[in-house]
Design goal:
- The complex is a heterotrimer of chains A (165), B (89) and C (115).
- Helices cover 87% and strands 0% of the residues of chain B.
- Chain B is mainly α and 89 residues long.
- By secondary structure, chain C is mainly alpha-helical.
- Chain C has one domain.
- Chain C contains four helices and no strands.
- The longest helix of chain C is centred in the first third of the chain and has 28 residues.
- Classes of the chains: A mainly alpha (165), B mainly alpha (89), C mainly alpha (115).
- The interface between B and C is large, with 48 and 52 residues.
Chain lengths: 165, 89, 115
């Protein structure tokens, strides 16, 4: 008997692959479900070596809630940015902000950087080589410290809970 | 209702594509042109989806998905070239 | 019922097209590269998203069963848009593109260890 960790190293990834496979064929028939399951088991097994330091999701439910929060923020962000773009350009206050990272693992930093890029008026531009600071460009910011505190409280703390405890 | 909305949406999308094209031609720097091309392909995905609804067919789904994948790979490849190919060591 | 769904589809298509246009206006009108980066990464993904929701609604209510595979495109764009924006921003920092004078803060990281 092989331990589940060996033949199912990334259960969430396997589930995601199955869903992707079914979406691609736009049907839910038994044959497709079985083949999707097979792919969901085989693909993580064969690509396991390429995953840097395999991320562990400690709280899947928190991850789902985080996804919903980000999705809602994306909608709000879009309306905000659209408003800023249509308004007078002279009024915008662009700034580079260096953001001190608390996260340590590459995967969670990647998630945070992607979230920052997708949400209100900010794009992550660079990560320092020692993974301790993130360079963010903001379209219109009045107070850098408030922006940093907002990102820390809304996105980084939940990510820390999900991946690193 | 739909018969009225689709031409309007087509007009808006065409305007968006023209603005992107203007940025591709105008520049002024290479990253600007790449960004404009990036936006161009994302907008063309939206245009294809719209065209699919207009013609009442799902054939264009695969095309849109392929453009999304190839466009992303292209953008990343060119950005990587700018990062690495320009360093004189 | 039919007309309500048709109206919803029309609404989503128009919202999507409007957001795509606003993103492109941002690309054309904002003064420097880093500010231009904001338009396409946000507005256009939502533009495509609106179109896709309209398309899902339209094809799912034709009586041939649920059609969700368009969502793959949105999912893919949501994952890739930040990555390409990040790569472009990195390239622009590397090439030291000009920014508008009123941009606050430095475009470099402390200790200058830009990777």
């Amino acid at each position: 008997m092989i331990a589940p960790r060996r033949w199912l190293p990334h259960p969430l990834l396997s589930l995601l692959l199955l869903i992707l496979w079914l979406l691609l064929f736009n049907t839910v028939s038994l044959a497709h479900v079985l083949f999707g399951l097979l792919l969901g088991i085989l693909v993580p097994l064969f690509t396991q070596r390429f995953w840097p330091g395999s991320p562990r999701v400690r709280r899947p439910l928190h991850l789902a809630r985080y996804g919903l929060v980000v999705l809602g923020d994306i909608l709000i962000a879009n309306v905000e940015v659209a408003w800023l773009i249509l308004g007078p350009v002279k009024k915008l206050r662009p700034a580079f902000v260096t953001y001190p990272l608390d996260l340590r693992e590459d995967f969670s930093i990647t998630l945070l950087a992607s979230t920052v890029s997708l949400t209100p008026g900010t794009v992550s531009a660079d990560v320092s080589a020692d993974r301790r600071t993130l360079l963010i460009h903001a379209l219109d910011v009045a107070d850098e410290a408030a922006l940093i505190a907002h990102i820390k409280q809304r996105y980084e703390t939940p990510l820390k809970e999900i991946f690193e405890c | 209702m739909l018969a009225m909305a689709i031409p309007i949406a087509f007009t808006l999308m065409s305007l968006a594509l023209l603005l992107n094209l203007w940025r591709v031609v105008r520049g002024p720097d290479l990253p600007d042109r790449i960004l404009a091309l990036d936006t161009l392909y994302i907008n063309s995905i939206a245009l294809l989806v719209l065209f699919g609804i207009h013609l009442d067919t799902m054939i264009y789904f695969e095309v849109a998905l392929l453009i999304a994948m190839m466009g992303f790979v292209g953008t990343v490849a060119v950005a990587k070239y700018l990062l690495r190919g320009d360093i004189i060591e | 019922m039919e007309t309500i769904i048709e109206a919803l589809v029309a609404l989503f298509l128009l919202i999507g097209a409007a957001f795509a246009l606003v993103g492109s206006i941002g690309l054309a009108k904002l003064p420097d590269f880093f500010m231009r980066l904001h338009g396409p990464t946000k507005a256009t993904t939502l533009g495509v998203g609106g179109m896709i929701v309209g398309s899902v609604l339209y094809f799912s209510t034709r009586g041939e069963g649920l059609s969700l595979h368009e969502l793959l495109i949105t999912l893919f764009l949501l994952i890739t848009a930040p990555v390409s924006a990040h790569m472009l921003a990195k390239a622009a920092l590397h090439l030291r593109l000009r920014t508008v004078e009123r941009t606050r803060g430095e475009g470099t990281l402390p200790r200058g260890d830009v990777k």
